[in-house]
Amino acid sequence: MKVKQSAVLSPDLAQAAAQLGHLLARLRQARQVKQANAALRAGLSRNTAYRLEKGDPGLAIGQVLRYLDAIAPGTSLADLLAQTDPALAALQAREATKRVRDLSAAELDELNF
C-alpha cells in the first residue's frame, strides 16, 4: 500500500509560486497584453491564465513556460526571474509618474489658517 504525500506546500514554496505568478502578471501588464489574449496565444483557458498569475502551484511547468512565451516570445524563465525585460522598467516609470489634481475650494479652505 502506497502512502500519499501531502499536497500542502511549505510557506517558502507557496511564496515562491506566488512570486512567479506576480512576475508573470507584471510582465504581461508591462507588455500591454490582455490576459485573455495571452491565454489564447498559449493555448490555455483564461481561468488557467488567472491561476498562473495568482501563483497556483498545482499547474504544470509547461503551462508556465507556454504562457511566458505568449507574453514575451524568446524570454526564458531565468530572464523573467531576473526581471531584465525593458518593458518592466517602462512600466515602473509609468507607475511612478502620477498626475496631481488641483485642490477643491473646500480643501483649500481647510489649509488656510
How are the secondary structure elements laid out?
Layout: H1 11-30, H2 35-42, H3 46-53, H4 61-71, H5 77-82, H6 86-96, H7 105-111
Helix pairs in contact: 1-6, 2-3, 2-4
Summarize the structure.
The protein is mainly α. The chain has helices at 11-30, 35-42, 46-53, 61-71, 77-82, 86-96, 105-111. 63% of the residues lie in helices and 0% in strands.
Explain this structure to me?
- The chain is mainly alpha-helical.
- It is 63% helix and 0% strand.
- Helix 2 (35-42) crosses helix 3 (46-53).
- It is elongated and about 60 Å long.
- It starts with 10 loop residues before the first helix and ends with a helix.
> Main beta sheet, described?
none
Q: Give the N-terminus to C-terminus distance in angstroms.
A: 80 Å
Number of helices: 7
**Count of individual beta strands:** 0
Structural class: mainly alpha
Looking at the structure, what is the overall shape? Answer: elongated
- What's the rounded overall pLDDT mean? 88
Q: Could you spell the SSE succession in H and E letters?
A: HHHHHHH
What portion of residues belong to β-strands? Answer: under 5%
Low-confidence stretches: 1-6
Share of residues in helices: 55-70%
Rounded to an integer, what's the Rg over CA atoms? Answer: 20 Å
